[in-house]
Design a protein that fits this description.
The complex is a heterodimer of chains A (627) and B (105). With 627 residues, chain A is mainly α. Chain A is built from 26 helices and 2 strands. Classes of the chains: A mainly alpha (627), B mainly alpha (105).
Chain lengths: 627, 105
């Protein structure tokens, strides 16, 4: 089928849809209570358009389309509202709009009784629109604006229940932590601009490849850009905001953890990957940070008892895995894992939302249990998501995890050690998700709320069914299909240079590791053959350290209290003593004092003034006459 | 024969009387009159200098023109000053300048 018009020229409509919905619903909520449906319609049309573009891209083998309007023109230099449509951004907009659509449909049920439902939908629309602009923009400065709006959206969503102390704290924490990264990003962008004279991403990469940028500048700026990505994508040590972001409504968490907020950092590094590739030190740093995040997140997820927190640390761990694969080499793999993980993680979060919905907002998994009896759809959807996250064949998660492991074998030198560390992480990944699933959904109910739980209405289960079905079949899109001519996997579509590999011994090992994780989880939490309390008792100091999140929050609090606030107090002292007391009040006081001394000159006697005039005239005459 | 010096003696006497009245009188009206006296002392001075100057006949009248200007403006000033004194009297029931010392520091 040939589409009658070139749909890619209208691609700017996709973010605009969501943005217009944001504007309309902000104003419209004063007129009608049903205004939030406009957001759902908008994101549906955005999703539809994205799939049309994706469809046309696949059919016509298009490579790159750019659309731009001048925004600021300074002499010969212009900043543009530019859109770059290539297979990477097409995949991203399809993914973002799809997850956002499902989350919004789900929220129609989840947020039904919330009086501020239309505000929730407005912010979600803004959030989605900003993310779409971020993935579509062709220059760094435009992307940076979208990047900041994404940060704002996350702040508003996390702080949605603004009357709760924890929520507003979490919102502040998320905003400030990501802002720290953003400062790095902005400095990085400025550095690049200073040495290349352009913000346009493809020109920057061209210039860098032709050797127009010095190595030190490239290393500096790519590390700074990566610092921004670390903030947004919750990489160690800027990960602290992600678990606290649980305070927002659960559908918002599903969106943040899958498609919008945390995807931004991974996307940015993938987009700038050729640039990172040229900088000598950048990719090893990305790799090291990713590996640390992978292990730290996974180990904390292993001990968390709050469902949403455990899922959050699992997200953090998998973001680490994505960064690690970006650092290791083929960026396509990271994007594939981003999409696949996003699908499973949004599924898991929506299931967690259902659990909270039916058990009166209980999130501690030890107070639940046995939910599968009453919530069959949610339980099976959660299980599918969990298995995909654990990387069990033939679910989608298996394939991308496999590709990442294969890319590790191509590292020079140390790869067997690194591979073993990552496999340990994969094992932990399987273990914690099994633990979470078994405790929450299987066994016997541990509380009245859990026993009395019931399945959520269809509007909240249909998105789960769609996502689970997609996770089951998505693996097929990732690999070359024997019965479709010329199709060599989604990875090949995103980057033609990329080929899907298959290494039998590695697949065997990774499946074995994942199953071992599953088995160990089952032994601990399924049939109780092993006692997890004894296990905890045996490694008590380590367990303590992990459950206190490696004391990183405490460390930051200490630094804030003892370094930043102390410095602030010093500045405050300077402000109070020198600026306020000495300069502002001092000048006022000196005027008051001098007037007190001089006020006797004003006698109020007429003849004194007359005398002064006469004396003045005589004196000035004398001066004139003598001089 | 009346000479320039006579004009100047008259002028300076009037001026000194004016200055004395300006400083010694308590009534605002008298102070005002003293100011007028000083003003007219200056006028006499002007006319005297104009009459005894070495200017040509045609420009000798300039001093008198200046004096007429001063008289005109003095009339305006007087009207304003008397209006102010009237207001003062209405507000404070007094035109004794010794009592009007609200500007005292």
């Amino acid at each position: 089928m040939q589409l009658s018009t070139d749909i890619t020229t209208f691609i700017w409509l996709i973010p605009l849809c969501c943005f217009v919905a944001f504007g309309l619903s902000i104003v419209g909520r004063y007129f009608t209570e049903k205004i939030h449906f406009i957001c759902v319609v908008a994101v549906f049309s955005a999703c539809f358009l994205s799939f049309l573009v994706l469809y046309q891209f696949i059919l016509s083998d298009m490579s790159v389309v750019t659309i731009s309007i001048d925004w600021i023109a300074i002499g010969s230099f212009t900043i543009t509202w530019g859109i770059l449509v290539d297979s990477l951004s097409v995949i991203m907009i399809g993914f973002v709009t799809f997850v956002s659509l499902l989350v919004q449909i789900y929220s129609l049920g989840y947020m039904l009784n919330d009086p501020r439902i239309s505000w929730f939908f407005s912010v979600i629309s803004l959030f989605t629109a900003a993310m779409l602009v971020l993935v579509l923009s062709d220059n760094l400065i435009f992307m940076y604006f979208a990047w900041e709006v994404v940060g704002l959206g996350s702040y508003l969503l996390i702080g949605f229940y603004y009357d709760s102390e924890a929520a507003s704290r979490a919102a502040k924490k998320a905003f400030i932590t990501t802002r720290i990264g953003d400062v790095g990003l902005l400095i990085g962008i400025m550095l690049i601009f200073k040495s290349t004279g352009t913000f346009n991403i493809s020109s920057i990469i061209d210039l860098a490849q032709n050797g127009a940028v010095s190595e030190s500048i490239m290393t500096c700026s790519s590390l700074l850009i990566f610092f921004g990505a670390m903030g947004k994508s919750a990489q160690f040590p800027l990960h602290v905001w992600l678990p606290d972001a649980m305070e927002g409504p659960t559908p918002a968490s599903a969106l943040i953890h899958a498609a919008t907020m945390v995807a931004a950092g991974v996307y940015l590094v993938a987009r700038m990957h050729p640039f990172f590739d040229l900088a000598p030190l950048a990719l090893p740093v990305v790799f090291a940070v990713g590996l640390t995040t992978f292990l730290v997140g996974g180990s904390i997820a292993l001990v968390m008892t709050d469902i949403k927190r455990a899922l959050a640390y699992s997200t953090m761990s998998h973001l680490g895995l994505m960064m690690l694969s970006l650092g290791a080499g083929p960026w396509v793999v990271a994007i594939l894992h981003l999409v696949v993980h996003g699908l499973s993680k949004s599924l898991l979060f929506l299931c967690a939302g259902n659990v909270m919905h039916s058990t009166g907002n209980r999130t501690d998994c030890w107070s639940l249990g046995g939910l599968r009896k009453n919530m069959k759809i949610t339980a099976s959807a959660f299980t599918i998501g969990a298995l995909s996250l654990a990387g069990i064949i033939p679910l989608a998660g298996f394939f991308t995890k496999e590709e990442i492991l294969i890319s590790l074998t191509e590292i020079q030198g140390l790869w067997p050690i690194i591979l073993m560390i990552v496999l340990a992480g994969v094992f932990v990944s399987a273990l914690y998700i099994t633990r979470l699933t078994l405790i929450t959904f299987y066994g016997e109910p541990r509380s009245d709320n859990a026993a009395r739980s019931q399945e959520s209405p269809w509007i909240m289960t249909i998105p789960l069914i769609i996502l689970s079905a997609l996770i089951v079949i998505f693996g097929l899109i990732l690999i070359p299909l024997p019965f479709v001519d010329g199709y060599r996997g989604l990875g090949h579509f995103i980057d033609p240079k990329y080929k899907v590999h298959f290494v039998p011994w590695l697949s065997f090992i990774s499946i074995l590791v994942a199953f071992l994780g599953l088995l160990l989880g089952w032994l601990f939490y399924g049939n109780n053959a092993l006692s997890h309390t004894k296990m905890v008792g045996r490694v008590a100091p380590l367990y303590d350290l992990i459950i206190r999140k490696y004391k990183i929050d405490e460390l930051y609090q200490w630094v804030i209290d003892h370094a930043i606030l102390a410095f602030g107090r010093l500045i405050a002292l300077f402000d109070r003593v020198i600026l306020n007391d000495a300069l502002v009040n001092g000048s006022g006081k000196s005027v008051v004092l001098s007037s007190l001394r001089m006020k006797w000159l004003q006698t109020g006697r007429f003849y004194n003034y007359g005398m002064a005039m006469v004396i003045g005239v005589v004196l000035s005459a004398a001066v004139w006459w003598l001089a | 024969m009346i000479d320039l010096v006579h004009f100047q003696i008259l002028s300076i006497s009037l001026f000194c009387i004016g200055v004395y009245g300006f400083m010694a009188r308590k009534s605002a009206i008298m102070v005002l009159l003293s100011i007028e006296l000083m003003l007219n002392a200056v006028n006499i001075n002007l006319i005297g200098f104009a009459a005894f100057s070495d200017f040509a006949e045609s420009t000798r009248a300039l001093g008198q023109v200046l004096v007429i200007f001063v008289i005109t403006i003095a009339a305006g000033e007087l009207a304003l000053a008397i209006a102010i004194i009237l207001r003062l009297y209405r507000n404070t029931k007094s035109i004794n300048i010794d009592e009007l010392d609200s500007l005292k520091g």
